[in-house]
Amino acid sequence: MSERKFPAEVFARVDESPDALFYGEPRFALHIDDATIAALTQLYREELPPGGRLLDLMSSWVSHLPGEVRYAHVAGLGMNAAELDANPRLDERRVQDLNREPALPWPDAGFDAVLCAVSVQYLVRPVEVFKEVARVLRDAGKVLVATSHRLFPTKAIAAWRSLPADARLRLVGEYLAEARGFRQARVVDRSPAGADPLWVVVAERAPR
Ligand SMILES: C[S@@+](CC[C@H](N)C(=O)[O-])C[C@H]1O[C@@H](n2cnc3c(N)ncnc32)[C@H](O)[C@@H]1O
Question: Which residue has the least CA distance to atom 23 on ligand 1?
Fold first, then answer.
């Protein structure tokens, strides 16, 4: 198991029932404030190549991508088909429980960037998932893991619920290091004043 570096308690959840039950009903809600979304959109504008091929992991009905930028292809993977169907940025939609099946259904090196917005706290097999992210990214492609402080408490892993923000970001860095295939990650703090914070772990795919 790739997760062996971490004690099992790290990934314990209050609600261990299948995620399909929790996410069965669509939630057309925003999970961060408007100012925080605007900050994430600006970071995407700076970091993502226009015309690129993107994968939005743990996607829902919004992707926070800059509206004026065209991308060649945006694939989205999440738990709820109705949410993904409502997401206007997606060219391809996949319903998949990453906690049951971490293998991604895309070929090697096919994406320029992989996004995961305000959701990494729900992964119980994150190293396996990020190994797959490294596989589907082209060399020098980027992974952007955006975090804030809201969560569904019964579905977030125990470590995320107990750790302060800086330790959560280190944990995401450890996932990437353990997955291998990434250059040293950096943390970008784009927290707007008076709104939900925004800390984004960014890492480049190392050359193969
Ligand atoms: C807080 S929402 C964030 C949605 C979106 N990324 C955003 O920025 O608004 C959490 C998302 O994680 C997805 N998710 C939760 N558990 C998952 C799992 N086991 N496998 C795949 N996606 C999952 C849900 O479908 C949901 O869309």
Answer: 58
